[in-house]
Amino acid sequence: MTTVLLDDRGLRHDGRRVDELRPVKIEVGVLKNANGSAYIEFGKNKIIAAVYGPKEVHPKHMALPDRAVLRCRYHMSPFSTDTRKNPAPSRREIEISKVIREALEPAVLLYDYPRTAIDVFLEVLQSDGGSRCASIAASSVALADAGINMKDLVCACAAGKIADQVVLDLDDVEDKEGSGDMPLAMMPNFEQVTLFQLDGILSSQQFKQAFSFALDGCKRVYQLQKEALMKKYFGQGEPSMEESE
């Protein structure tokens, strides 16, 4: 049976409008043995981020004399998808680990921690499309929780195309059956994009709309990140918000 991605009323298969985020929940400080940690639910994605460091680099020859080495490991648990995944790191996981590191590096003041390593571990407990963006958001909050000096939080969200219509925040069904995906990460205070990827073909107008949708989604996620941190450290705001109207 083919899933109707967009019905006659302009609603998606899960009832969302084209510009609507899935429910998002962020909690800070969920792991006592990590220097910083965060848990995020982004739709049905469930991801834990843990930060260790700054710490001594092993092996020592990998240390840099003027700045820290930021290392990221993105891993999907064998039970995180509808079919059992091989626990060994896949090419996709290695690529996403690199993408997440490159998205975070512009925000982290690595030169404040010479000859050290900062490790970010991401464990995807349940996957439902958009896990790289959710992982970037969780990693940024975990880095802040660890007290790592940063220029700004990095927030992330994706837009894409289904049934020739640009939509915000694709879930797993839309990602697999749609015809375009645009993950985006940014530092809102600097209006600087730190990650931009595009899979699929978009017209010039669709590209502009998707980019605008993704930017707007990033800013909504940014607000949730700040609220989660404020909740832990100042007892203000709520640790989560659901983007549903």
Give a structural overview.
With 245 residues, this protein is of the alpha+beta class. The protein has a single domain (24-239), classed as 2-Layer Sandwich (Ribosomal Protein S5, domain 2). It is built from four helices and eleven strands. It has helices at 91-104, 131-145, 172-177, 204-234; strands at 24-28, 36-42, 45-56, 69-76, 116-126, 155-162, 165-168, 180-187, 192-196, 199-200, 240-241. A hairpin with a 4-residue loop joins strand 8 and strand 9 (192-196). The protein is globular and about 60 Å long. Mean pLDDT is 92; it is low at 239-245.
Summary?
The chain contains four helices and eleven strands; from the N terminus they run E-E-E-E-H-E-H-E-E-H-E-E-E-H-E. The chain has 245 residues and is of the alpha+beta class. Strand 6 and strand 7 form a beta hairpin.
The third-level CATH topology is Ribosomal Protein S5, domain 2
What is the β-strand count? 11
Structural class: alpha+beta
Fraction in beta strands: 25-35%
Features of the shown structure:
single chain; 4 helices; Ribosomal Protein S5, domain 2; six-stranded mixed beta sheet; alpha+beta; five-stranded antiparallel beta sheet; 245 residues
List the helices and strands and how they pair.
Blueprint: E1 24-28, E2 36-42, E3 45-56, E4 69-76, H1 91-104, E5 116-126, H2 131-145, E6 155-162, E7 165-168, H3 172-177, E8 180-187, E9 192-196, E10 199-200, H4 204-234, E11 240-241
Parallel strand pairs: 4-5
Antiparallel strand pairs: 1-2, 1-11, 2-3, 3-5, 6-7, 6-8, 8-9, 8-10
Helix pairs in contact: 1-2, 2-4
